[in-house]
Amino acid sequence: MADPVQLDDLHVTRDGAPVLRGLSLSLGPAERLAIVGSNGAGKTTLLRAIVGLQAATGTVQLFGQRCAAEADFAAARPHIGFLFQDSDDQLFCPTVLEDVCFGPRNLGRTPAQAEAAATRALAGLGVAHLADRVAHRLSGGEKRLVCLAGLLAMDPAVLLLDEPTNGVDAANGARLHAALAAFPGALILVSHDAAFVASLASRAALLEAGRLVPAEIHDHPHTHAHPHLHKAAP
Amino acid sequence: MIPADPRLRIAAAFAAVLSLSQLTAMPVAALACAGAVLAAAMSAGGLPWRRLMHLEGFVLMLLVTLPLTIPGTPLVRVGPLAASAEGLAQAALLGCKITAAVLTMTLLLAGLDPVRLGGALAGLRVPPRLVALFVATARYVETIGQEAARLRDAMRARGFRPRTDRHTLQSYGNLMGMLLVRSLDRAERVEEAMRARGFTRHLPLGEATPPTGPDIARATLIAGAAALLLLGDRAWPILSS
Fold this sequence. Notes:
The structure holds two protein chains of two kinds.
Chain A: E1 5-14, E2 17-27, E3 32-36, H1 43-50, E4 57-62, E5 65-67, H2 70-76, E6 80-83, H3 87-90, H4 96-106, H5 111-124, H6 140-152, E7 158-162, H7 170-182, E8 186-190, H8 194-200, E9 203-208, E10 211-215
Parallel strand pairs in A: 3-8, 3-9, 6-7, 7-8
Antiparallel strand pairs in A: 1-2, 1-4, 4-5, 9-10
Helix pairs in contact in A: 4-5, 4-6, 5-6, 6-7
Chain B: H1 6-21, H2 26-42, H3 49-69, E1 74-78, E2 81-84, H4 85-109, H5 114-123, H6 128-157, H7 166-196, H8 213-240
Antiparallel strand pairs in B: 1-2
Helix pairs in contact in B: 1-4, 1-8, 2-4, 2-8, 3-4, 5-6
């Protein structure tokens, strides 16, 4: 099977300033790549360029197919789930169920099939109880999980995750982690959450000066102290 | 030629458009239109082609519909419909007036930053609520536009392609609905943030400085030219008879 994502000599300029400068990347079918980098290093731009939402020069190959025009990207997008940094950008339907159905409906499923896929995806993330809630009034963590359900309902081969743990509490973070750990496909993870990255990624890279530099994930004990918050004794 | 003071620009534009709207003689309207086109072509920005394209589309519609709807001497007959010469003249007159007015507005107002325009409106004693409404709208139109663009990107990322079917209509409906809901939420948050910083229904829009002499002269010249056009317009029937 061809690599799901293969980038070669990618250049992106935004507002006159170069963001990506000759970036190359290949992602294997079950590889889990973590990308770290400072604010404004171009991590989101990179993810957007992969799915063709951001115009770039260089070559983008998705599943072995060279993608240049919007039509090429549009054909590949159903197989690539892109979790946006801001959940509110993704959730646009009134109820959770409708929103999760949106992707499967775009794939040409009937409303009944789409609903079945949506219900399955929500249940898989442990948030089936949210199905009839108003999407835009959920908590930050719930929104995140619903967004992810909207992608998983399309059965993608690749997930692109832009800061998945932003604004997510511990309980919902654990659900998110479990779901991503169980995801069989490839994923690219952009995150500041070192612990989250270390426990999910099989490879890491640093985005620096518009290129990817291989990085190392290692684990070593630290002696540390930090404040804790607990319920006060009555 | 164009005054620098935004208040004078608004006042001059208002006077000019007021005069232009009252023109009835075709030669005078054509003169005004030609003058405006010349002035716009000579300005730093050149002719605003994009704006004109939208506008002339509307004028074209007038040219097609007015001859058919205004009764008079028939020029052409298409089945039961007759295009009248009076209608055509009326449409041509309107076209000239509209083009002249829009070019004048573009020349005088397009270069102004929305916030300065707000300050100028306040300086012209427009009610503060209207000014605040205008400034906030000008500030957030782009933010809401960006929000819409991100929502559309997210839809595309999930394989959405517009077609002529129920799903597409429903999705666009949801998109519009969500934009409205979120704009309302944003408006509330912005208002709260403004109140948290001590906003009391009066926007601080900068010091009002008295307009300079040359600026007043420029504005007077523009308004005077417009008044002269109107005078010529009223005199035309007498002169040409």
